[in-house]
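G., the chain you wanted modeled:
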Amino acid sequence: MAARSLKVLILDTDYYARQAINSYLAWDRRTRVVHLADTLQSVLDYVERTPEIEWPDVVLLDADAADSPENLAELVKRLEDTIPNVMTLVLDRKLNLDTVRAVARANADGYLLRDEVRIHIAWAIVWAQDHDFVVTASVKEALHDEFESRLFRSATVPERRQYPELTARIRQALQLCVVERMSAELAADEMGVSPHTVRSYIKQGYRILEAYDDTVYPPDMSPQERAFMRFTALADPDEEDASPDNSGDSARS
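Predicted structure as tokens:
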């Protein structure tokens, strides 16, 4: 797995959303959060006091940081002018086609619905590096009648990688213990089972995740870290057969 070490700045008006995204990105060595901001001024202050080498490669921008699509577009332009060559990805809670059009015209690099990326945000960021303008699946569907160049050619962020053998309970255990970092004891209380059962689910989950992924990870990466990478991975859009016998389901890097 290639190490990109993309520096990410999160501009989000919601404290809990900032912390959640920060937590997800911290697990992925290809991304590194350099600043958490709730206003444009916080971003400008960071850039002013920070050496250029530590300026972000990517800004995750909350659509609610402005009160209208037009003002959000102006915010995108300000970020692009302030941080040369930055990739700006807008995160929204609900689809707004006026916002999509406005940020695309402002040269943003993507418009993503939060519920469609969630724990897969690091994978989405890395994948977006190779595309001009990216959107999530329901946004692409809503753009079917759009003929403006960037929107018409927008690339759809792949769906999450499928692991058919993961049962709902194993998936829940992985979500709690791997993604949310709960102990087996706390996860057991949440799931209404014993800690022993949770550990059994996790062991099975690790085995299933590994069976569907032939990526070579750094030797110092912990089993929990590898499990997070696999659990949050996006599917390879060119893959036709997601079976563990097919090597094409490995992670992009």
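The first strand starts at residue 6 and ends at 11.

Shout if anything looks off.
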